[in-house]
């Protein structure tokens, strides 16, 4: 047993890129009915799974992303996932080959 909790059904991983380093962090977005769901239109910063605090917005240090190379995924964020949820970290689009 890993001691890590499963991501609940209906929850999604949301990827956030550090535009300076290229590292991609993630947090869990819970469905509206879940007690940990964010309030709509909340402007509070996100705390990513590794503890990094982000305020994603276009043109800023952090921005939401859905397309990145697997090697850019934050290893500390990944390490927080239950073994049965780890594949979800790779359910994203890959960049086009150059």
- Runs in which pLDDT lies below 50 for 5 or more consecutive residues are none
Structurally, how many domains make up the residues?
Answer: 1
Structural class: mainly beta
Major sheet attributes:
3 strands, antiparallel
Question: Mean of residue pLDDT?
Answer: 88
What is the strand content?
15-25%
Total E-strand runs? 5
Give the strand order of the largest sheet, numbering strands 1, 2, ... along the chain. Answer: 2-1-5
Shape: globular
Distance between the termini: 41 Å
Radius of gyration: 14 Å
Helix coverage percent of residues? under 10%
Determine the number of helices (DSSP H or I, runs of at least 4 residues): 1
Order of helices and strands: EEEEEH
Characterization of this structure:
Strand 1 and strand 2 form a beta hairpin. This protein has a 3-stranded antiparallel beta sheet, with no helix packed on it. It has one domain. 5% of the residues lie in helices and 21% in strands. The termini are far apart. The chain is mainly beta and 98 residues long. It contains 1 helix and 5 strands. The model has no long low-confidence stretch (mean pLDDT 88).
């Amino acid at each position: 047993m890993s001691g890590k909790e499963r991501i609940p059904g209906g929850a999604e991983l949301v990827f956030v890129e550090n535009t300076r380093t290229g590292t991609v962090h993630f947090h869990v977005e819970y469905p509206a009915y879940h007690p940990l769901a964010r309030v709509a239109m909340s402007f509070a910063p996100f705390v990513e799974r590794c503890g990094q605090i982000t305020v994603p917005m276009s043109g800023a240090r952090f921005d939401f992303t859905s397309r990145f190379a697997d090697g850019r995924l934050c290893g500390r964020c990944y390490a927080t996932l239950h073994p049965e949820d780890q594949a979800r970290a790779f359910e994203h689009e890959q960049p086009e080959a150059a």
